[in-house]
Specification:
By secondary structure, the protein is an alpha+beta fold. Helices cover 36% and strands 13% of the residues.
Amino acid sequence: SIRNANVASRVVYLSSKTSDKVYPHLTLPELTYLATMGGAQLVNLENVIGNFIVGKEFDALLIDPEAEGSPMQIFDEIDTIDRIFEKFIFLGDDRNIKAVFVRGRKVSGTDITNL
């Protein structure tokens, strides 16, 4: 998971600060890549999954960052789409997930026809 990779990356970074070589912690784009295309490449499925290129299997979550009871607080004036994505990754939970898609089919969630 991205959250666990982030924690591990920060532990390595903090531990390395006392040695001769400092390892920077992973950025959100790097963590996201590892969780998507990196994982697909690891299992030799990068031609099938890992991103949203046409022809690949569509696996995705539809999220509502302002769902009832959401652990995230969104500020319309300052939160960009990137910042909202980051908040979902590190703070979001099942309350924010409206629908789950696997191989292009909705396998869980609410009616999304009126979005």
